[in-house]
Amino acid sequence: MTAVGYDPVAFKAEQRAAWNAVSAGWAFWQDRYERAAAPVTAWLLRAADLRPGSRVLDVGSGTGEPAISAGRLVAPTGRVLGIDLAPEMVDRARRCADGLGHPIEFVESDVESLDLPADSFDVVFSRWALMFAVDRPRVLTDLRHLLAPGGVLAAAVWGPPEANPMTSLAFRTLAADLPPAPDRPGPFSMSDAARTRAELVVAGFTEVTTEPVPVAMRFTSVEEYLSYARDVTPPAVLAAVRRCGGSAERRGWERLAARAARFADGDGPVILPGLAWCLRARVTPESGRPG
């Protein structure tokens, strides 16, 4: 164990394996998810003020957004580099971008071990990825160094779990019978907006703002939502639930169905709400920035 209370190397390996394992599920539900995420993607693109020639880094590109949308806006003279820890996600993003003619490159890479020159980008995006960084203060400082003077960080993180059934319902319900998880980076580790703003200031960013942006994911029925949950819940969680025994596993899914039904519009669709904190921060335009 390390000073942070867990093994960061093992954590990274688990994250890579988990995202690889659910990549097919995310690909299947990608269109649905992107419709839900559209308000956040639009906010990030507006905040970045992209134009032809802009140089863009997208951290944690997943299946391709917002990098693909950014590529359209910076063409033909700009460029977009999308990075993700999971090679299966990178492959999916490449397939989505293939044939579009946008100046986009997707590569397998970890934001915590990037080796790129300072001032390489005008914009850094990250949509629901920064929360998983092991050493977030260092990552934020490194991203500031990668941005040219006047550059913009536009990022989205999840608000608190109670405001995010879209993201938290399945895990919190299925994991109810499991031992407490260790205190490690996770989807809600940046849910305190005031703390996140303070972290960005400490990292050297200026003009830091946060805005709550509501989202919602729509399913035709409880059964369809359960299919989604099975497809995108990390296999390690599902395996841990199975190890609790058949009756416990059955109770977990029954409990999830009952809780999802609370979000049904009568006999109509199930609409799961969520809340993102969208962040914008700048690098001071003056040269000789702080170290």
UniProtKB/TrEMBL annotation:
Residues 57-154 form the Methyltransferase type domain. Keywords: Methyltransferase, Transferase. The keyword Repeat does not apply. One of its GO terms (molecular function) is S-adenosylmethionine-dependent methyltransferase activity. It comes from the Bacteria. It comes from Salinispora arenicola (strain CNS-205). CDD domains: AdoMet_MTases. This is Methyltransferase type 11. The keyword Magnesium does not apply. GO terms for biological process: methylation.
